[in-house]
Specification:
Keywords: Coiled coil, Hydrolase, Signal. The chain is mostly helical. It has eleven helices and three strands. 74% of the residues lie in helices and 2% in strands. The chain has a three-stranded antiparallel sheet. Helix 1 packs across helix 2 and helix 4 crosses helix 9.
């Protein structure tokens, strides 16, 4: 009896210690998970802030690009105005050159006319001089013959003459000299009248040329004024053009800075998403959530789910379609992801088919019947596994995912656990798009698919993978 009591006491003590240890472990696990969730929330907040900065930067880039486009339009318009003004100036300069030629010709003609006037003035002066000289000579003769001598002068000539005949000869000679002088005086007067007439014609021509030159000068001044005015407009336009071009250069510099900021934000977001994925993987490694069960979805949610299945797995087998649908519904049920279908599909940096607009394009056209049926099955609780991630095998190996299960072209896995990375393969592969299976835009590539959009493959695919449906 004593032994039984001792054995009972020992058994009770063992049970008490185990229960106490289990409770302590459970409490410690709860605290650890709570701490991990707190870190996840902090990381999510960091991601949200980065996404906010990214959105603000994108808006700034968009606004700056709009301003740049307007400035570029201004530059184009100002350049056209500048070209038009320069063309106008060239036309004015051409007219000015023509006017300068006409003015030069008019000035040459004026110089020629002025020279002719000078020549006529000289000729007139010479004729007037000869007239005066001839008149003075005639006057002197008359004075000598008549004024000084009077009748005695003639009587002297008569007395000094040897005969009447000699007297008459001398008298006739004197008269002939007087007549010659008078004739010459008349000729000089006629020459002066002719020179005066020529001079009048030349002066009239000079007046016409002078008037013509004045008209040319006025026209030249008018064109020169217009040219200066247009040159002023051109200088203003070119100054504005230069200012707008400087703005363009500044916009380019600002856009480069914003692009660099965007790359930095994308890198930080990628790092934060990678950290969050690792935090979730670490937490999921401690406990496994139950993501099974049905989901009461609206018609809109059913369409979104079917469209995403079609976008990601339209060319895959029916089991492959169920696999993609299972990942989406497992995420809805998981505490690590949004708790709605649309929230999971539209979560930032997750599904490239959504970001590219492919999902919404399929929604607008209507998803095919096979994908609708697959969506209805997973909503009803059907699952091909508890997977939370999927990608192609190439990228699963590239990222070193330690454990995954292949369905068609996709590698499915529950935890983002990686193994030591081997050397990269020599074969060149296309650069990965942004992430749409996990929360890592750089580390997790998109769910690649090689299918055509909006194809209804009917029920023929369902019979091709009965072995796969039950293999998970």
């Amino acid at each position: 009896m004593r032994r039984k009591v001792i054995a009972g006491i020992l058994l009770f003590s063992l049970l008490f210690v185990n229960i106490f240890s289990f409770d302590s472990y459970a409490d410690e696990l709860d605290e650890t998970i709570a701490s991990m969730r707190q870190k996840e929330e902090e990381t999510q907040e960091t991601i949200s802030n980065l996404e906010k900065q990214t959105k603000e930067t994108q808006d700034a880039i968009k606004a700056l690009e709009g301003e740049k486009a307007q400035t570029q339009s201004n530059v184009t318009n100002l350049q056209s105005q500048s070209n038009a003004l320069q063309s106008t100036i060239n036309g004015y300069n051409s007219k000015l050159n023509t006017l300068n030629g006409e003015i030069s010709e008019a000035e040459a003609a004026m110089a020629e006319v002025s020279s002719e006037i000078v020549k006529l003035n000289n000729e007139l002066q010479e004729a007037q001089k000869q007239e005066r000289e001839r008149y003075e000579a005639l006057k002197k003769r008359i004075q000598t013959t008549y004024e000084k001598g009077g009748t005695q002068g003639l009587i002297r000539i008569l007395l000094e003459s040897g005969s009447i005949q000699e007297f008459l000869t001398v008298f006739e000679y004197l008269n002939a000299v007087v007549d010659y002088d008078q004739k010459k005086i008349g000729e000089y007067q006629a020459l002066q009248d002719e020179i005066e007439a020529k001079k009048a014609v030349v002066e009239e021509k000079e007046a016409e040329l002078d008037k013509y030159q004045e008209a040319l000068d006025e026209k030249h001044d008018e064109l020169a004024g217009l040219t200066d005015q247009v040159k002023g407009q051109l200088n203003t336009t070119n100054s504005s053009l230069s200012s707008e071009k400087n703005k363009l250069a500044n916009y380019d510099q600002q856009l480069q800075q914003l692009d660099a900021k965007m790359k930095s934000l994308e890198s930080q977001t990628a790092a934060a998403n990678a950290a969050l994925a690792q935090q979730i993987a670490d937490r999921l490694a401690l406990t496994k959530e139950d993501t099974s069960g049905s989901y009461s979805a609206s018609a809109d949610e059913l369409t979104w789910l079917a469209a995403t299945i079609q976008a990601e797995a339209d060319g895959e087998s029916y089991t492959g379609k169920l696999g993609v649908g299972s990942v989406i519904m497992n995420r809805v049920k998981s505490s690590a992801f949004p708790n709605t279908i649309i929230g999971v599909i539209t979560q930032n940096m997750q599904f490239a088919s959504y970001r590219s607009g492919k999902v919404e394009l399929i929604i607008s056209n209507g998803p095919n019947s096979t994908c609708i049926r697959a969506a209805q099955e997973v909503l009803g609780g059907a699952r091909v596994g508890d997977y939370l991630f999927f990608m192609t095998q190439y990228w699963a190996d590239y990222y070193g995912i330690s454990e995954y299960y292949m369905i068609g072209h996709h590698a499915f896995f529950y935890r983002w656990v990686t193994k030591p990375k081997e050397e990269a393969p020599q074969e060149q592969q296309p650069a990965p798009e942004e992430n749409n299976e996990s929360e890592q835009p750089q580390e997790a590539p998109p769910e690649e698919n090689n299918q055509e959009e909006n194809t209804d493959n009917g029920d023929n695919e369902e019979n091709n993978d009965d072995s796969e449906e039950n293999s998970d």
